[in-house]
């Protein structure tokens, strides 16, 4: 007997695979496929975010040099039907402060350059990604959110738009040509620099509601203008 015959004797007659074994093999294969797709989605998410950010592209973002707002799938947003401002009691350091925020919203970040608010538990960016199960609390992501900042040093003047009353002064609500995703409210400041409030269209705020929110925004002395 050669080695092959000896091994065959040890192995015995091959058994027919059972349904349980086949189901287990199939489940392992599907799990491996999901893992591979998840890794592929994670690896490609940076490109998706960058492309979506370019598509979003408010004409002026007012972010610091080198900071690029990221974007992606639209989060769940509070609509105009449920718009209600409530007092904000959280910490307010840095460049801006806010009196009231919409019910169901949170302040996600405040720096010298910007204040960003988003719906609590917003659907994540890249919601088609199998790993996209974490709420989008990234203050550099503007999708479905509201961003407050000073007018960029690279932008001069105020574009034409709809005049709205913001507290005891007037603001200009602008829907710029090519901006398919949002509107920007310009509110003049004593130093001649406009306050800008960028509002994502999908959240459903009316012009009056944007103005109501803007009336409670204050620019602190250490607020800084971005570029771009």
Topology (SSEs and partners):
Elements: H1 3-11, H2 19-56, E1 85-87, E2 96-98, E3 100-102, E4 105-110, E5 114-119, E6 146-150, E7 162-166, E8 169-174, E9 182-188, E10 194-200, H3 207-214, E11 217-219
Antiparallel strand pairs: 1-3, 2-11, 4-5, 5-6, 6-10, 7-8, 8-9, 9-10
Plain-language structure description:
The strands form 3 sheets. This protein has a 7-stranded antiparallel sheet, covered by helices on one side. A two-stranded antiparallel ribbon has the order 1-3. With 228 residues, the protein is an alpha+beta fold. 24% of the residues lie in helices and 24% in strands. A hairpin with a 7-residue loop joins strand 8 and strand 9 (182-188). The relative contact order is 0.18. It is elongated.
Short description:
This protein is an alpha+beta fold and 228 residues long.
Query: What is the string of helix and strand elements?
Result: HHEEEEEEEEEEHE
Count the beta strands.
11
Low-confidence stretches: 33-81, 126-132
Q: Figure out the total of helices.
A: 3
Shape: elongated
Spatial order of the strands forming the largest sheet: 4-5-6-10-9-8-7
Sketch the major β-sheet. Answer: 7 strands, antiparallel
Mean of all residue-level pLDDT scores: 73
Which features does this protein show?
11 strands, single chain, about 25% strand, about 230 residues, two-stranded antiparallel sheet, 3 helices, alpha+beta, elongated
């Amino acid at each position: 007997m050669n080695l092959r015959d000896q091994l065959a004797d040890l192995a015995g007659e091959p058994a027919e695979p059972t349904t349980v074994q086949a189901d287990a093999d199939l489940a392992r294969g599907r799990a491996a496929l999901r893992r591979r797709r998840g890794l592929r989605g994670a690896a490609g998410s940076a490109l998706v975010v960058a492309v979506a950010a370019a598509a979003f592209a408010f004409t002026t973002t007012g972010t610091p040099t080198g900071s690029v707002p990221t974007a992606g799938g639209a989060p769940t947003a509070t609509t105009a039907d449920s718009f209600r401002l409530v007092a904000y009691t959280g910490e307010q350091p840095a460049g801006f402060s806010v009196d009231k925020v919409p019910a169901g919203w949170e302040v996600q970040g405040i720096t010298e350059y910007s204040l960003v608010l988003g719906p609590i538990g917003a659907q994540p960016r890249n919601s088609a990604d199998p790993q996209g199960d974490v709420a989008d609390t990234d203050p550099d992501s503007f999708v479905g959110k509201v961003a407050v900042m000073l007018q960029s040093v690279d932008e001069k003047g105020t574009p034409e738009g709809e005049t709205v009353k913001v507290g005891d002064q007037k603001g200009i609500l602008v829907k710029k040509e090519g901006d398919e995703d949002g509107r920007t409210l310009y509110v003049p400041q004593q130093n001649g620099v406009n306050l800008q409030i960028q509002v994502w269209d999908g959240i459903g705020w009316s012009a009056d509601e944007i103005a109501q929110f803007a009336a409670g925004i204050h620019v602190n002395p250490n607020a800084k203008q971005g570029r771009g």
